[in-house]
């Protein structure tokens, strides 16, 4: 029996680097420093060098990175924050949780990312910030968005949870806005074996606020100056991330190489629309997401499943149609492109050390399906 092609294989990377990872864990355990501490400080320093940012703050998850970023820039009751409805739930969840109002705008059909023109239309005197998401590893039109936000004097937060190392005009995403947020969840392109996240900024005030927020609003001496969170990065994850960070450019390159094999082999296949890069972007393909036209997405997904090939739907439902956000009063038809794309999107298997032969096998089966 042929082996299943998983959606993502995280064990293969562990096997490859097993000795180094185990040595790293041993080093952390012997240091007696388990939360924050020297491994975290070192990781924060290395990330700053890598991305070209002034400050980096390690936190517990990508969600916490967003939550703390919003708190640090002072988002609260009755503020409006503009974002995309086509993203992971955290992006808007943290806005609501702080008592602010998520204001959704539709996406661009070809990039899956927020439509900049529509952002401009939604900015009013209550708008405090925009959260831009670089979905699937593809930068959104971040330079133009950054100019708009500067001109309107509102904050720009980047949700780069799926895009560590992605670039726009040769500059890393996460460094365009006032604050950049990352996640190291195991399926992200830079990851650890548990939860982890990161905030980057060039602002010393935001940096200090984030550092205090991740530790209950405390700067020194158990003296809390404002309410915060327990959102400290574990040393073990920082140490593993420190090991993985130098590999990342190679991993991202390999993702692009594999994505191009999909693209070469699936060009002109009926019903399939391939992902496109926007000009001047460096897509790192955290997900390789195609669109399947004419209502045939689920048919392809089932076909692949029968051939023991896993695929995944990111995302089956845009946020404005979820029960959690029903209080905002949006309805079906409000964001037609996000709604359409959520019925057509299908992400195919891709991880940085996936064998090329597996990609070719997936392509072959997709072609068989299209011709059947
Ligand atoms: C993964 C992800 C998050 C949340 O990160 P966690 O570490 O899982 O909390 C936020 N936004 C986007 C776009 C993500 O993909």
SSE layout:
Blueprint lengths: L10 H21 L6 H14 L3 E5 L2 H11 L7 E4 L6 H8 L3 E4 L11 H7 L4 E7 L8 H11 L2 E5 L7 E2 L2 E2 L6 E5 L13 E5 L2 H10 L21 H10 L3 H19 L5 E2 L7 E2 L5 E5 L4 H10 L29 H9 E4 L7 H16 L1
Parallel strand pairs: 2-3, 2-4, 4-5, 5-8
Antiparallel strand pairs: 1-9, 6-7, 6-11, 8-9, 10-12, 12-13
Helix pairs in contact: 1-8, 2-8, 3-4, 3-7, 9-12
Bound molecules: pyridoxal-5'-phosphate.
Pyridoxal-5'-phosphate binds next to helix 3 and helix 4.
Which features does this protein show?
372 residues; alpha/beta; 7-stranded mixed beta sheet; 3-stranded antiparallel beta sheet; 12 helices; binds pyridoxal-5'-phosphate
Largest sheet: 7 strands, mixed
Q: Classify the secondary structure makeup into a structural class.
A: alpha/beta
| Overall geometric form | globular
Q: Kindly report how far apart the N and C termini lie.
A: 23 Å
The percentage of residues in β strands lies in 5-15%
Bound ions, cofactors and other small molecules, one mention each? pyridoxal-5'-phosphate
Order of helices and strands: HHEHEHEHEHEEEEEHHHEEEHHEH
Strands of the widest sheet, in order across it, are 1-9-8-5-4-2-3
Counting H and I runs of at least 4 residues, what is the number of helices?
12
Q: What Rg is obtained from the alpha carbons, in whole angstroms?
A: 21 Å
- In helices, the fraction of residues equals 25-40%
Assembly state: single chain
Arithmetic mean of pLDDT? 97
